[in-house]
Amino acid sequence: MVSSPLGGIRGGLLLLAILLTSCDSRMSRILDEADRLLPDNPDSADVMLRGVTDWQSMGRGNQALYGLLRTKTDAMQGRGVGSDSIIRQAYDYYSSRASRASSNTELGRRLGQSEFYFAQFYIATDSTKLAEDLLRKAIRHSDEAGDLRTCYMAHQYLGNLAGRSNQREGIELLKQSLYIYNRCNDKPANQLSILLDIGYSYLASSQFDSTAVYFDRAMQVADLLDSDVKRSEVHRAISSLHFYQQDYPTALQYAKQGQAHVGDAERDASLFMLAETYLYCDSLRQAYTLFSELKQSHQTMIVYEAYRYLSQIAAIDGDNERALSYGDSSITASEAMYHDALSQKDQYYQDLLQNELQNEQLRYQHRMTILWVIIILLALAFIIYIGYRRLRIYIRRINLKRKRGLQIQRATIRQVQDLQEEVVDRRKELLEVKHITMEESRIYQQLRSGSIGSLDMTPSRWLQVEQLLDACSDHFVSRLKLKYPTISQSQLELCMLTRLGFSQNELADFYLRSVEAIKSRRKKLKAEVFGEKGSAISLDDIIENF
Known about the structure:
This protein is mainly alpha-helical and 546 residues long. Among the domains are: 57-300, Alpha Horseshoe (Serine Threonine Protein Phosphatase 5, Tetratricopeptide repeat), CATH 1.25.40.10; 453-546, Arc Repressor Mutant, subunit A.
């Protein structure tokens, strides 16, 4: 009996389909087992997933699950979320089935997780708006699927992002994260992280009593974990609280404890906080030692700040050559824009120091002049006592001495006036250089050209604006925070943009709001922060003359 060729082809296709189905079924079991192990045994899950070499030949469902599990494992192992290709694949697959997610708990759970980890990728790339949208979706889907762990973590991440522009909303989201965490009773280390985030949010809004409450609760959790590393983390947080309260000795005490057990990732930041606290406690030698160690940091901003503080310490010690050397090193450690502004600022500080030394010299001369007058009066009394004949001789000598003293004083006054004029000229030159530096600043050019708006402004970019204004406008932002400690981040940002010369129309374009809305915000800022409600003076004049 001869077999049909068509029948042979059909049999081969059937056998291939069976083999493929069997292979995909085996991979499904491996992925399900990795998913089961992942919460408590991420190391074992990581080994299983890395043993899969042909995941791209799997079905779309298994490919999506593999991408989600690999991303979760990398995140739990501290490797970050990596590139967006593998998690995007999972997100695209599960979001395409979003209509069935409400009726399928497992599908909704995986959709919420893919949205959460995809949002982490956007956070890493400073795409804040996209990250916030994904986190809000993750909260909704994970809540519908009963995935409390993903739900509270998404609230935590969203709270930290939202708090940059709306501190009250950020705090409420973080509190909601803590509430959901208490319902699922997850790892205490995660509770510690939430408590610290809430505390730092209150600290940013200068609500110190609430900050202390949450930091104390964080310390209780660290004691429960019996982890020196976690205690050190809480100690650094408490040190920040006392530092903002200007209780520098107590801040120094906690900063030392926080430095005892610190990981490599936080080492430089922790060491910098300790050095800065030493500096504010007037322990210049200890601060100098730590800042010298931070010169080798891999973080450019820390290196720059370390050199800047070293330059200031050297200037305080009167070692101008070493101060200039550290100033030059700080210029090398940061961007060209910031370098130029910093160099001029250091020169400005040196001019002020030189001026103070000259004033001290004048005060010394004044004291010496008073002493000489006393001596002369005693000499006159002695001359009168010994006789009238020698009185004329002594009077003549006294007159000569007085004449010389007046000549010295006139010469000194002329020198002081010349020096003061020179200081004024140098200040004018410094202002011109600062203006040029600001005009050449990349972030300033981007803001003025309208190439970036409020949605594109990340915390790092706002930090660049703060540093630019501090360097080029005589510590404008630092002075503003010091005088008005209750000012919110959004109000501070509006002040900075106004100081940069943004008109109401430009502010409306920047914030994507109407001009009337901007007028209302400016009026509210003028009344609440500067206390000029109903005053005829404009907000622009207040900030310009601040």
